[in-house]
Design brief:
By secondary structure, this protein is an alpha/beta fold. It has twelve helices and five strands. It starts with a helix and ends with a helix.
């Protein structure tokens, strides 16, 4: 991060979130040590040599830094507009999505972070890659900021299970979409009121379309391609987050609660940097540049008129989904018709 962002973050953490030093350790050093360990995945011994403090002192104040960032998370990991009253600027100013997705307020997905657990716990934490991971569900807006996070789940936990826990338990204060608004989801989540997923059993991911010269074969693919393009913001957000914080790719053997703290702390700093008035961060700027290149390279190739009609009945899946699935399937149909006839 830039010096300006560091200085402002330090003032915020010291002033409102309990970050503190001691007679021999300044507040500035506490934050610097915390960021150094998170960004470089440096060992306590390495940090000890860099900052010339004992390993016990480094360990203690790393915990102080994590706790302060965890406190800040309550302030910065949330929607800027909790009422979702306005269409996001990223949709409003992009003719690919406006007016089709004008009521969309964000995207939801899960990601896996390296985890270190005891031998007794390993089976539950083995994720899709075959290694032990922490499954983290997140919601993001179209500015690549996290607006809700649900860390700490075992790598084997299914995304839909985490989603149901997050959205049904009032304790987690999930930012539910108001009437008429919705989040974008992939196939791992239920179609239900306020949550719009793709057409099942239909090509969806952008690389699949790129391999087919961006040709869409039917109306469902037209919707899925546009849905995938817009929902891609969550993958970009995860990408920026993991690139900046090396510790997430090779987690040290801290107690698992501390590993969860590290996830929360790094997501907090991610949002703080992105929302800082300076708006200058190399990783975010590169992500935006890559997105512009993808847009230019993946323009829709028009379907033939013979493929505009699709006789398959997509409403038959609604009784397997969540409450309000029929309503969301109808919205999906309306958007599809508008995209096909534009």
């Amino acid at each position: 991060m830039t010096q300006e962002v560091f200085t402002d973050l330090l003032a915020e953490l010291v002033g409102s979130h309990g970050l503190h030093g001691s007679m021999r350790m300044t507040d500035r050093e506490v934050l610097a040590i915390t960021l150094y360990i998170l960004s470089q995945n440096e060992s306590m011994r390495g940090a000890m040599e860099r900052f010339q403090h004992s390993s016990e002192t480094i360990s203690r104040y790393f915990s102080v830094g994590l706790s302060a960032l965890e406190s800040l998370a309550k302030q910065v990991i949330k929607p800027l507009d909790p009422t979702f009253s306005r269409t996001p600027a990223e949709i409003r100013q992009d003719r690919r999505y406006m007016p089709f997705f004008k009521d969309c307020i964000g995207a939801i997905d899960g990601t896996h972070v390296d985890a270190r657990v005891s031998n007794e716990e390993k089976v539950a934490f083995i994720g899709r890659s075959g290694s032990t991971t922490q499954n983290v569900m997140a919601v993001c807006d179209f500015n690549m900021c996290f607006t809700f996070i649900m860390p700490g789940w075992e790598g084997s936990a299914h995304d839909s299970r985490i989603f149901k826990s997050a959205t049904r338990n009032p304790h987690y204060s999930f930012p539910h979409p108001p009437q008429g608004k919705y989040y974008l989801l992939d196939a791992g989540y239920p179609l239900q009121r306020g949550y719009l997923k793709l057409y099942p059993d239909t090509r969806y991911h952008i690389p699949d379309f790129e391999r087919a010269s961006n040709v869409t074969r039917n109306r469902k693919e037209v919707f899925n391609k546009r849905h995938s393009s817009l929902r891609g913001v969550i993958e970009q957000t995860f990408g920026v987050w993991k690139k900046k914080w090396v510790i997430l790719r090779d987690m040290p053997p801290y107690p698992f609660p501390k590993q969860v703290q590290i996830v929360i702390a790094t997501m907090t700093i991610h949002n703080y940097i992105r929302r800082h008035p300076s708006r200058h961060d190399v990783d975010f700027l590169n992500a935006e540049a890559n997105q512009r290149e993808t847009v230019e390279d993946s323009s829709d190739n028009q379907m033939s008129s013979s493929m505009l009609r699709d006789d398959s009945e997509q409403l038959t899946i609604c009784n397997k989904e969540g409450e309000g699935a029929t309503e969301m399937a109808a919205i999906r149909e309306q958007i599809t018709n508008a995209l096909v006839n534009m």
